[in-house]
Amino acid sequence: MDPGGGCPHAANARLLARGTVTPVVLPGEVQGVVVLGHDALKEFLVHPDVAKHPGHFTALQAGEIADGWPLKTFATVQGMTTADGADHRRLRSLTSKAFTARRVEELRPYVVELTSRLLDGLEAAATEDGVVDLRTHFALPLPMGVICELLGVDESHHDRLHHLSNQIVATNISPAEAMAANQEMAKVLSAVAAARTANPGDDLTSAMIAAREESGDRFSPHELIGTLMLTVIAGHETTLNLITNAVRALCAHRDQLELVLSGGASWADVVEETLRWDSPVSYFPFRYPTRDLRLDGTVIPQGTPVLAGYSAAGRDTRAYGPDAEHFDITRTGKSRHLSLGHGAHYCMGAPLARLESTTALEQLFTRFPALDLAIPEPELPRHPSFVGNGVQKLPVRLQG
User: Fold this and answer.
1) Element (DSSP H or E) covering residue 254
2) Can you give the pLDDT at residue 202?
3) E strand spans, the chain
4) In this predicted model, what pLDDT tens digit does every residue of 30-55 receive, in sequence order?
5) Tag placement on the chain: N or C end, fewer CB within 10 Å?
């Protein structure tokens, strides 16, 4: 795996030439596997002999993984993404209440108002020729603002939390940088938890603290910080990538944009096709077979760290037909994408991500229907990670 990230689809083609389940070398010469095929990934995500707890990670338990390994946070953070069975259900039960359809619908006025306010600022930030970085001024502050509103995180922390999130999901940073980012993220979130302990509010952090105090086995201190970290990162990085990837797709497929602007398709159609065609997450770490596991003809040894190849699965021709590489918002009758997960670990923030992205795209292109990229697509700088799939900047010309 290239620690520098880049376009996942080129890497997917190279990996798929070896099979839908294939061995890979992770940073630090750690042996792993990636599952790329849609059907193989769907089976793997719900397989009873696959776990997420780091106790099943053979190399980690053998002391072969250095503290500064750039993917170590994904493996060891204490929270829902590294828990199984009853522990997973315990940690997910309270947090999921913040993402119910009712709670998300209650957030709609805030999302709409914030989107409108950011678009006003977008015009103000544009240069004389109408060029502005859509990522910095719109696609990033929208999901960051919403998730921090949900968590009760003060706005003064937003920029720092995003920077640290970028460091944690990066796969090309040094061990010292990785350790420093994790330590500072824990420090910032501990300050957030302390503020909410002293002054509780109607937010998820306050609710988790209350649950911990009412019943000591609900959230340990480490689980509280781990859950906050995961919620902040997953709650804004993925939606940020979803919005920017959808804008890039529509700018490259003006016929599809015209179709939705004319009412021939919906913004929800745009979001679902973007999730399939250019998943916000390329390869998500980690799951571990609890025994030697045969998957689509390939044996994955017990305890091997496995990446879920969401971006590859979304373009699997066996699931989506020979035109799987085409962006088509009218696509029907094919397999449902897996980009938000599958099974017990399905993304509980999916309803919120869909609300934010559909609202963002509708308001953006209604106000600026001629919006287009200000530089050619191949020149957009990619995020230095094979986990996240997005760009570092998205300069656009608002009036085309």
Assistant:
1) helix 254-261
2) 87
3) 21-26, 30-35, 50-51, 131-133, 283-289, 293-295, 298-300, 306-309, 372-373, 395-397
4) 999 999 999 999 999 999 999 999 99
5) C
Do residues 248 and 377 touch, judged by C-beta distance below 8 A? yes
Non-local CB neighbours of 12 within 8 Å, separated by 6+ positions: 36, 309, 311, 312, 315
DSSP 137: I
Tokens of 198: 């002293």
Instruction: Report how far residue 375's alpha carbon sits from residue 22's, in angstroms, rounded to the nearest whole number.
Output: 35
pLDDT of residue 343: 93
Instruction: With H, G, I as helix, E, B as strand and everything else as coil, classify residue 197.
Output: helix
For 8-397, CATH number out of 3.30.160.250, 1.10.630.10, 1.20.120.140, 2.60.40.10 equals 1.10.630.10
Give the pLDDT band (50/70/90) at residue 72. Answer: very high
Q: Return the structure tokens found at 252.
A: 């490259």
pTM (2 d.p.): 0.94
Running DSSP on this structure, what letter comes out for residue 391?
A: B
